[in-house]
TrEMBL record:
Keywords from the UniProt entry: Cell membrane, Membrane, Transmembrane, Transmembrane helix, Transport
Subcellular location, principal: membrane
Stretches that traverse the bilayer: 72-95, 107-127, 133-150, 186-210, 230-256
Origin species: Candidatus Microbacterium stercoravium
Protein name per the record: ABC transporter permease
Subcellular location: Cell membrane
GO biological process, one term: transmembrane transport
Length: 265
């Protein structure tokens, strides 16, 4: 495997920091993200508060670090649901009867034509707002895209020369599926999953910004953006730094995902 370039190495470093923030946020920010201090409200960035404070005197840096668990965690969970459903539908379409493939593919194509965020908003409107609803909504909204990728890949692998040779040598359909079709279909998905997590974090934050995801005082990045927009003219740091956290995380996962896709191509 080729060594990582500068951009990929930087992206891997950012992702590593995010993982630390998710698993052990106290290592990076030992404070309490929910502890209020009214006398320290709206403090600009300084040595005491590197990213300033919000209207309740809570450190923006501390809340961003602890909010990684909510934003990234919801993004990973939503991606897991989308990938899981996509794999099931993709394999059924790719290996199932032609009538089933045709019917499911038509449904998937219609759903895929709709913007993901619009679909997520529709699902949230049906099942109600909240973090759990955000996970389900984004997972369901992203499933058609993964299903299309899995279907295309599984059909390519199933019709490949090495699978045909294995069947010619007497390998059973079940054995050929386990040895060749399954691993060669799922392995390339790793890069797409990495890209998908970054996109899911953006959509999770968008739902929270619209008031349909995590609610204050939860230190979730989209919720922090929603709270800070009211004070944008006087306390710009309340909006700028959570927004940068979302952007940098999404870019890092995108760069890393593209690097992985080149390595698995």
């Amino acid at each position: 495997m080729r060594p990582l370039g500068v951009s990929a190495s930087a992206a891997a470093g950012v992702v590593l920091l995010i993982l630390v923030a998710v698993c052990a946020p106290a290592l990076l920010a030992p404070g309490d993200p929910l502890a209020v201090s009214p006398t320290e409200g709206f403090l600009a960035p300084s040595l005491a508060h590197p990213l300033g404070t919000d209207e309740s005197g809570r450190g923006v840096y501390t809340r961003i670090v602890h909010g990684a668990r909510a934003s990234a965690g919801i993004g990973v969970a939503a991606t897991a649901i989308g990938v899981g459903l996509g794999i099931v539908i993709g394999f059924v379409c790719g290996l199932g009867p032609r009538a089933v493939d045709t019917a499911l593919t038509r449904v998937v194509e219609v759903l895929y034509a709709l913007p993901t965020l619009v679909m997520a908003l529709l699902f949230v409107a049906v099942i109600g707002p909240g973090p759990t609803s955000s996970i389900l909504a984004i997972g369901l909204a992203t499933a058609p895209g993964y299903a299309r990728m899995v279907r295309t890949r599984v059909r390519q692998v199933a019709r490949s020369d090495y699978v045909a040779y294995a069947r010619h040598e007497g390998v059973t359909s079940t054995a050929a599926f386990g040895r060749h079709v399954l691993p060669n279909t799922l392995w390339p998905l790793i890069a797409m999953i990495t890209l998908g997590v970054g996109q899911a974090i953006v959509w999770v934050s968008a739902l929270s910004f619209l008031g349909l995801g995590a609610e204050p005082p939860s230190p979730e990045w989209g919720s922090m953006l929603n709270a800070g927009r009211i004070y944008l003219a006087t306390a710009w740091w309340m909006t700028l730094f959570p927004g940068l956290a979302i952007i940098v995380t999404a870019i890092a996962l995108t760069v890393l995902g593209r690097r992985l896709s080149k390595g698995t191509a």
